[in-house]
Design a protein that fits this description.
- This protein is of the alpha+beta class and about 190 residues long.
- The chain is built from six helices and five strands.
- It is about 45% helix and about 20% strand.
- The chain has a five-stranded antiparallel β-sheet, sandwiched between helices.
- Helix 1 packs antiparallel against helix 2, helix 1 packs parallel to helix 6 and helix 2 packs antiparallel against helix 6.
């Protein structure tokens, strides 16, 4: 008879974390054809693993160009990301350029970005979490999580999201190097 307890205990945070880590491993061990495919896989995995997340997106600013939504799990996430670019303000842009993470627990009471919050609420977003995804050369990225419900993201959700952001940064940076065109060699001078 085996007296050892089942590990991790079913339904425990440890079991949930084990599932998350397995998901991360599977997503990042798969070779993707492009940065877009890699980012799309990341958004689906993060949506499925972060408690409270109903949609997810990744936005990137490349080489000083405007921020663009590169991957989203749904139309609303893509539209809300685009809205921030149009307004030139919002939690994603703040996470990209100012700080590591931004949380909006309730769009109805958000005061930092009133125009954005009102439009996001009208689109059906109740709460949002944006995390700086990576800083690599001239690329900046943000991972955005959305819920229809207010106060959907707790500290555990944030921890899981940070795990994804950290690992996604590594995967995205690697894929960016693969996708980047090779530098053009200077023409040889005639001697």
């Amino acid at each position: 008879m085996n007296n050892m307890a089942e590990f991790p205990p079913e339904g425990s945070d440890t079991e949930q974390l084990s599932v998350v880590m397995s998901t991360l491993y599977n997503v990042f061990q798969t070779h993707h054809e492009s940065i877009e495919t890699t980012l799309q896989e990341i958004t689906h995995a993060v949506r499925d693993c972060v408690p409270g997340a109903e949609q997810a997106s990744i936005s990137i600013a490349r080489y000083g160009h405007a921020v663009q939504a590169c991957a989203a799990t749904g139309l609303v996430a893509a539209e809300v990301d685009s809205l921030q670019t149009e307004l030139g303000d919002g939690p994603c842009l703040h996470a990209l350029f100012e700080c590591r993470a931004v949380s909006i627990p309730d769009m109805r009471t958000e005061r930092r970005w009133p125009r954005f919050a009102l439009a996001a609420h009208v689109a059906g977003i109740g709460s949002m979490l944006s995390l700086k995804l990576f800083v690599e050369n001239a690329h900046l990225g943000a991972l955005n999580l959305y819920s229809n419900k207010p106060r959907a993201f707790d500290s555990y959700s944030e921890c899981i999201a940070f795990l994804f952001a950290t690992h996604a940064a590594i995967a995205a940076a690697g894929t960016l190097h693969e996708d980047s065109p090779s530098p053009i060699a200077p023409p040889e001078s005639n001697r």
